[in-house]
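1st attempt posting a full record on here, be nice pls
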Amino acid sequence: MSTLPIKSLLRFLENGHLKLCQQFVWFNPAKLPGPAQWVTINRTRVKDSYTNIWWMSKTENPKANNRNVLQEYSKSMKKLIKSGKFNAGKRPSEHNVSEEFFTKDNNGSIPNNVLISSNTASNSRYQKYCKSNSMTPHPARMPEDIPMFFIKLLTDPDDLVMDPFGGSNTTGAISQQLERRWVTVEADE
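the predicted structure (as tokens):
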């Protein structure tokens, strides 16, 4: 297994004088088996199905608001909020959960740092555009909900979003949709 991603992260942090705010995992349940040599040929490993996403910042307290990415409550949580009854008290983890802790409606639950999204779109706006203009699509595309999550979490309307690895410009398209300004960089025009 290559340690290049870990080494790269450390170099970004050190050379860019950056802070690591949080690590996310993008779990792609439809990811093709790989690395092929080890998974489908030698058959000595299972397939990699996630990509690390590292949120870095110049400051220790960057602008972010998890209220912008709340997820719909589960049926059981909705029922708990409605009933107002919860098994309060001290937990084995030593957390002390108050009687009203899980009974307040906060308009959704705070998401975890595992983002689940299949990258299987075969008929996206981007692909239709490429086809109608006789262009070869960029080979490394990501689903729209990945940049959408981070743009909502970390920016407000009219903020500037910069994508240094533009590819198919999914980040730019979502930024524009969410009323953010955007800049992208891509080696291949």
